[in-house]
Write a structure and sequence with these properties.
The complex is a heterodimer of chains A (585) and B (197). Chain A is α/β, with parallel strands linked by helices. Chain A is 35% helix and 18% strand. Chain A has four domains: 3-217, Thiamin diphosphate (ThDP)-binding fold, Pyr/PP domains (Rossmann fold, 3-Layer(aba) Sandwich); 222-315, Rossmann fold (3-Layer(aba) Sandwich), CATH 3.40.50.920; 342-511, 3-Layer(aba) Sandwich (Rossmann fold), CATH 3.40.50.970; 519-573, Alpha-Beta Plaits (2-Layer Sandwich), CATH 3.30.70.20. In chain A, a hairpin with a 6-residue loop joins strand 20 and strand 21 (549-551). Chain A is globular and about 80 Å long. Chain B is built from eight helices and six strands; from the N terminus they run E-H-E-E-E-H-E-H-H-E-H-H-H-H. In chain B, helix 5 (131-138) packs across helix 6. The chains are: A alpha/beta (585), B alpha/beta (197). The interface between A and B is large, with 63 and 66 residues. Strand 8 (166-171) of chain A pairs antiparallel with strand 2 (34-38) of chain B, so a sheet runs across the interface.
Chain lengths: 585, 197
Amino acid sequence: MSRTLMSGNEAVARGAWEAGAAVGVGYPGTPSTEVLENLVRYEGVHCEWAPNEKVAAEVAAGVSMAGARVLVTMKHVGLNVAADPLFTQAYAGVGGGLVYLVADDPGMHSSQNEQDTRNYAAAAKVPLFEPSDSTEALAFVKRAFEVSERYNIPVIVRTTTRVSHSKSLVECGDREQRLLPAYQKDAARFVMIPANARNRRVSLAQRLEELSSCVESCDENRIELRDTSLGVITSGIVYQYVRQALPEASVLKLGMVFPFPEKLILDFSSKVDRVAVIEELDPYLRLRVSALGVGVIETGLPCIGEYTPGIIATAFGVPAPELREPIKDLPPRPPLMCPGCPHRGVFYALRKLKAIVTGDIGCYTLGALPPLQAMDSCICMGASIGMAHGMGLVGSTDRPVVAVIGDSTFAHSGLTGLLDMVYNGGAGTVMILDNRTTAMTGHQGNPVSGITLAGDPAPAVDLEALVRVIGVASVREVDPHDPAEVLAVLREETAADHLSVIVAKAPCALLVREKADPFAVDEDACIKCGRCISLGCPAISKDPETSRAVIDATLCVGCGQCVRVCRSDAIMPSGAACDIGGRWS
Amino acid sequence: MSDVTTVLLAGVGGQGTILAGDVLAKVAVAAGYDVKLSEVHGMAQRGGSVDTVVRFGTKVFSPVIDPGTADHLIAFELIEAARKLPFVKPAGRLVVNTRTIQPLPVLTGTLAPPVGVVAALDYEGAIFLDAEELACEAGSPHSANIVLMGAASVGLPFDAAAWREVIASRVPPKTVDANLQAFELGRRACEGGACTV
């Protein structure tokens, strides 16, 4: 069997396919997104994006009840949205195997928090597997389907960024051929009215009891005895760090951490002189090990952020390697909106308006960063609209309040917030930044863009018709590449005493294949006012000697936002793109 | 003692570090090594600092690394080379693109551009080259990442033929010739010892 280099996400997809999953469903979210993007490429499995994680989990519940195996994918915060179906699904159980792939993001590379999904497994009372590399990601997903069906329960496979987005060698197998059973109604199991739910609550306890013996002896939990002066209990990617940092230490490597393998912990602890628990994020294992009466040594390792082998080595007194002298005073390089990004014109106008902007989650969250800095909040998917309504209820400011939300985020959970505003007489202003895609996670289709996960056309939601029909008084469309127009419409709508939705519609700059000719600055006409520079476009810079604006023709995509904000008509088409220069020094 | 070799690729989101890292990892797999690769997706890819780590040896545990542990730094941009320097072992090897992409705070005039970076990076054996110039010579400005891999390949234990095979299989079909040429130009620039500041 040949070895293939796969990311954790690719391996999860492969595992689901080999397990005979009939359906994959989810909502994009870094670091989980590529699982479904890979699974959709396999024959015999139907994959789709849902508008949000709750819907995805409900679709999965239906697939499972119909008897087929299904994988549902999301990032850690997505499980907050999908928690409602998950908790009760644990009572009902499954038909076909039902596996949740939930990807955590320690260190918050691309997330608003670093919650630890292992707590969800304990709270929802569902088994949780934690792979430490791609080989395990593939194997554990297959095993999760078996466990799901054998113990009649949904199962979580939890990865972290470094499992999802690191690649290692995997041996692939064949797809399991599965027969679909005929549907049989089982209302006592799936209709969770209190009378049935009380029975299923007892059943869940029994199923967990059976699982408790499974975790004590399963292959996923193993003792590696080496030097017994130190025994480390660990799981997930941290196992790899421990093996590198403390190669001689004995290790209890946990692949299944809920239910908790109490006997195995006690057995391991009895074989080593000192026990350390090493885990990223919450002290999930440590508290449970301590509760068994096992003395755990204090490592001083934090509960915040990512670990590395070096962090662990240092905690155990291993000398750090010799370092080169760092080079000082380097300018930071935060992420930024691309040249030609339609969001830029919107945030330029919002800044001019001096608006209080309740923001949301997507590329447009970059509007919070310098130089535009035109965002006051970003909490969770869909929060912008409810927060704008809430600010309006208090009325503590004379400044206009504007909610800003993307097309995919609006479909995810913005619509319900807008319904709330209509229902409760909110008179605020909501901007939907419709760039025709879910851009931040890598351009996934959504109900507004009208492209499916498989790349097929789908009915594209008419946002203006939709918000009109639910009762929004004023619906306007603006061109985000014209900041003056955006500002004028914003002024009108924020001054009016009605609820309004402004749709700023222009495709993501990365989706535009045909670039317009770049622009250039007429040096004689430039009055050094700095307006174009305040857009924060990476194609525009301030000449350090003359203070005039300079446009890098290799980066400019000709969106024309700078032309429209220029006071002195100094920006004009430059003809063809120049040779490499400008950006490059 | 571990026999693992660690290569750190550093650049700016959108420069092609992910593809370059993938090529290197596949070359190492073809040579029979255990390989791990770690990369950054999501928000940082929007023009921020990005890095990819490729590690190969008999048995690789961690895909992520600490300061002072990289054997090779392949920097796609000058400021990022400087930023990642502390990750390189004192005896580690540097392959540095001399081109600079100024970060936004510099473009808007908020911060001054760094000065003297090349001199600060000019350790013994450091290789500097203008990857964009060679990429244009090869026929595609987008092949600068492969130029740098060509330059780095001289110090890595793999046959040129293995590199060429993986590159041809991994880049878009229309750009195979340009990328193979880019690899040759990068490699030749180093072999001749012509890479100077």
